Amino acid sequence: MDKRGEKGRQKIEMKLIEYRTVAFSKRKNGLGKKAKEYSNLTGEDVGFILFKQAGKQHSYVSPCIEKVIDKFHELKKNDSLQNHTDMSKTNVFEAFEDLRKEVQAFKEKCLDSKMSIDKHTLENRLKKFEAYKSRLDKIKKEIKGDVPGEQFKFISEVALDLEEMSS
Amino acid sequence: MDKRGEKGRQKIEMKLIEYRTVAFSKRKNGLGKKAKEYSNLTGEDVGFILFKQAGKQHSYVSPCIEKVIDKFHELKKNDSLQNHTDMSKTNVFEAFEDLRKEVQAFKEKCLDSKMSIDKHTLENRLKKFEAYKSRLDKIKKEIKGDVPGEQFKFISEVALDLEEMSS
DNA sequence: CCCACTATTTATAATGG
DNA sequence: TCCATTATAAATAGTGG
């Protein structure tokens, strides 16, 4: 008998659908799996954030990102005491977005031949980059021991329910 | 003739491999596609970040996250002038991670029956949540008009080359 | 990097527990 | 939410341009 149309995967139009908790859960897991595979293959660390809109079913926070952020704060304290470096950032994502901006600005200055960078500024920038970089290394090293059974890759996820508290 | 083993997809072990730029590019695109599909289906906004390690081939920044962050800064200025609200956060990811922490702390206080929350504190918290929420709404509204051809969903990506500047 | 093609693997929709 | 099964859809490794 012809089983087509009865069961098995059916094509889904990519538009907003509701109350498909099982399907959403599978896709969220799939997204995490793909991110982890990409990370394992390339060596890049991957983080992602889900912003949940309305009063949907639930909000979810993986323990992994909590751990990374806690460690980040802990190391921030130690670094500022020991090295007197600028450790003002309070969030891994923010710190690295900040670093990206600095790298970009630095590149632009280098490419602009009309403007020469003085050595003091250059040294300060490089110091800051080194500080951030060593902090990431420390975080990765510290977390590695806490995550049992698999190679540490920075796969993290945060889901927020934005409406939940204000209604 | 038997074409198995000659071409077509082969199984790949999920460990670090190098110089597979084409394969990586395909997987990065796939990751973005999956994130966009998830976002379109659920209505949640999704952001992800790639932390690139060593001096690999390239670093990539999508224009989308730039636009969101620029808009965030622009609205921050306006909000603080017009509403005198606390708009100290300088980064979308940081702001929402911060919000998540506040929500969590608030929940814990509510569940702790030994501790009653005074109305003044409660009102201040709700005000702050409302301010963040309206800012996200504004960002989404503003960006929507700038992204041609598709429904706005917060799919953003940042790749960093951490080693590039310090070597 | 892009595109296109093919053969295969992987993800997942539907369903039931 | 989890697990399992099945059939199909989608992703992608390998290759060449």
Give an overview in words.
Chains A, B: One of its GO terms (cellular component) is nucleus. 2 copies of one chain form a homodimer. The first copy, chain A, is mostly helical and 167 residues long. Chain A has a domain at 14-63: SRF-like, CATH 3.40.1810.10. The first copy, chain A, is built from 4 helices and 2 strands. The first copy, chain A, has helices spanning 21-42, 63-83, 92-111, 119-146; strands at 45-52, 155-161. A two-stranded parallel ribbon of chain A has the order 1-2. Strand 1 of chain A pairs antiparallel with strand 1 (45-52) of chain B. Chain A binds a DNA duplex (17 and 17 nucleotides) through residues 3-4, 6-12, 20-23, 25-27, 30, 33-34, 57-58.
Secondary structure: elements and pairs:
The structure is a homodimer of 167-residue chains.
Chain A: H1 21-42, E1 45-52, H2 63-83, H3 92-111, H4 119-146, E2 155-161
Parallel strand pairs in A: 1-2
The structure holds a DNA duplex (17 and 17 nucleotides).
Features:
homodimer; 167 residues; mainly alpha; SRF-like; two-stranded parallel ribbon; 4 helices; 54% helix; elongated; disordered N terminus; disordered C terminus; DNA-binding
